Amino acid sequence: MNAIKTFFLMTMMTLLFLFVGSLIGGNSGMFIALIFAIIMNFTSYWFSDKIVLMSYGAKQISYEDDPELFEIVESLTTRANLPMPKIYYIPSQAPNAFATGRNPQNAAVAVTLGIRQILKRDELEAVIAHELSHIKNRDILIGSVAATLVGALTTLAHFASYSLIFFGGGRDRDDEGGGLGTIFLLIIAPIAATLIQLAISRSREFMADEGSARISGKPNSLANALLKLERGNYELPLDAKPNSSHLFIMNPLSGGGIMKLFSTHPPVSERVERLRKMG
Predict the structure, then answer these.
(1) Among 29, 44, 231, 242, which residue carries the largest CB count within 10 Å?
(2) Which residues are catalytic?
(3) Which region among 51-65, 75-89, 158-172, 245-259 has the lowest average model confidence (pLDDT)?
(4) What distance in Å separates the CA atoms of residue 115 and residue 112, rounded to the nearest whole number?
C-alpha cells in the first residue's frame, strides 16, 4: 500500500512541477520542469534519507558513544524481527526523534540530544519502538520522499513567483494567466504540498503508537513520553523544516487557529488516550 502511495506522491509532484514550469516558461518551461522532476524523483528515492539527516546536522554514532541507546535499539529490533538500523544524534536540546530510509535494510533512527536527557529508559524504549514501527510498516520511504519533494516544490514555487513578479514569466501567456499563476504559486502550491503530507502522516502516527505498544509492551510509557515531549517542544521548539516536520514523533512546529487544520500529527491528547486504553 505504501508503495502505491509513494508512486502516487511522485506522480502528483511531477504534475505540479510541470504546471509550475508551464507558468514560468510555457512549453520550454514545462520540458525543463519535466527533467527537473525526473531528477528529483530519482534523488528522493535513493537519497532522501541522507538529505533529511544532513539538513538537521545528524551525526552517526557508535556503540561506544551511547551503549544504553544501542542496547535498547538492538533489543527492540530483535523483538520486531528487523535489521539493526543506523543510529544518529541530532545536535539539538529540543526533545524529538524520527526514522528514515528506503526500507528496513537501509533504515536510520535519529534522536536529539534533548530527548536523551528528559526520558527515562522505559519511555525511551517506547519512543524507539514507535520509530521501529514506522520502519516495519514501511512508512519511512514515503515520509522521506515527501520531505524531499515538498521541499523542492516549495523552492520551485518561490523561484517561479519571483520570476513572474520580476520577469513576467513566459511570453506566450496573457496578463490574466500570469496573475492566476502567481496566485497558484503563492497560495495553492504550498497548501497542496501540505495536504499531501497530511494524507500520508496523521493515521500513520496512530498505527506507529500501536506498533510501539506491541513491540515494547509499554503503552503507558509511550503516553508519558509523549506528554514530556509535548511540554519539552513547547518550552524549547526544534528549529525544524516544514517539509520534514511530519517525520518526527512529536510535531516540532506549533500553531493555533487555522494552522491546526494542517497539522501533520494527531493531537497528543488523542494519542495519549488511545495508549492509556491499551495499558
Answers:
(1) 44
(2) 131
(3) 158-172
(4) 5
Q: Which pTM value belongs to this model?
A: 0.79
Range 53-78 average pLDDT? 96
Better-scored residue on pLDDT, 255 or 12: 12
141 CA to centre of own chain: 10
* Coil vs helix vs strand at 110: strand
Q: pLDDT higher for 133 or 7?
A: 133
Q: What's the rounded Cα separation, in Å, for the pair 255 and 62?
A: 36
Find cell 494527531 and name the residue.
Answer: 266
Give the integer Cα–Cα distance in Å for 8 and 192: 14
Query: What cell was used for 76?
Result: 527492540
Residue in this structure with the C-alpha cell 526533545, named with its chain if needed? 95
Specify the pLDDT at position 260: 53
- Cα torsion for 145, 149, 151, 156, to the nearest 10°? 170
User: Residue 113 carries which side chain, given as an amino acid letter?
Assistant: L
Q: How far apart are the first and last CA of the chain?
A: 29
- Reduced to 3 states (helix: H, G, I; strand: E, B; else coil), residue 59 is strand
Beta bridge partners of 59: 89
* CA distances to 9, 22, 28, 72, 155 from 16, in Å: 11, 10, 15, 42, 13
- Residue 5 in grid coordinates: 502511495
Neighbours of 137 (CB within 10 A): 15
Residue 231 to residue 19: CA distance in whole angstroms:
42
Domain ranges for the chain, please list them: 2-278
